[in-house]
Hints:
The chain has a 3-stranded antiparallel beta sheet. Strand 2 (118-121) and strand 3 form a beta hairpin. The termini are far apart. By secondary structure, the protein is mainly alpha-helical. Helix 3 crosses helix 6 (139-146). The chain has helices at residues 3-10, 41-45, 65-80, 91-98, 102-114, 139-146, 151-173, 179-198, 201-217, 222-226, 228-237, 250-265, 268-278; strands at residues 88-89, 118-121, 125-128. Helices cover 54% and strands 3% of the residues. It has 13 helices and 3 strands; from the N terminus they run αααβααββαααααααα. The radius of gyration is 22 Å and the shape is elongated.
Amino acid sequence: xxxxxxxxxxxxxxxxxxxxxxxxxxxxxxxxxxxxxxxxxxxxxxxxxxxxxxxxxxxxxxxxxxxxxxxxxxxxxxxxxxxxxxxxxxxxxxxxxxxxxxxxxxxxxxxxxxxxxxxxxxxxxxxxxxxxxxxxxxxxxxxxxxxxxxxxxxxxxxxxxxxxxxxxxxxxxxxxxxxxxxxxxxxxxxxxxxxxxxxxxxxxxxxxxxxxxxxxxxxxxxxxxxxxxxxxxxxxxxxxxxxxxxxxxxxxxxxxxxxxxxxxxxxxxxxxxxxxxxxxxxxxxxxxxxxxxxx
Length: 295
């Protein structure tokens, strides 16, 4: 096994929710408004018990530190509808409910503002924004939607988006990749095969995500490259057999290998066809994303 393959088998890539730029919310006062117009305690009390104290959450929450955990919890509450559109978010109430400092609340709200989930206005304060304003391509929002009440819609939309992005990316990537990138694609297939043999679904999924990300990056289209994170997110939140990447199978592994071979040979049509076959390994997918009609 190559050095890269060995590294992938023993190391995990971490994800992080970065902070938005400073000053986005600090420039506005947090107006509390009339008591009747504020988030009632019943809203916070309806949250799941484990959300009660941020500091007690495990390290698995996206982001590091208290602000990362609070971002996760508030984001989930907004996306699930527990905090509906135009709800005012009062820092003091959030701080008391989750037992964190005002600074942590401000940092968290900055991140949520950058994602389009909340907005801050002078003399109004911070309020939840409607779904139409959310950055639906943000990896965090994809995750929150995929494990919330909108899970079915989110996974269907992700599948449809992958059908739009990846076959085209495979065609464009054929012959464009440098030798080192082609080797990395082969390494990912090797890792996936080894992981499947060991019953290591986690390593398989990481190599799978790396494979698809690399493919899009070498397509030579900057706008497609910008969407590579969406595909990675789609793979991470897959929870049903919608595509051949949802779980390790011999068929899925074989299609990945054929894609890599077609890319190395510069055969765009074969690469595109293999990608379409990969995305329809399971017959269930055709009820979600019909295969394109022949003209």
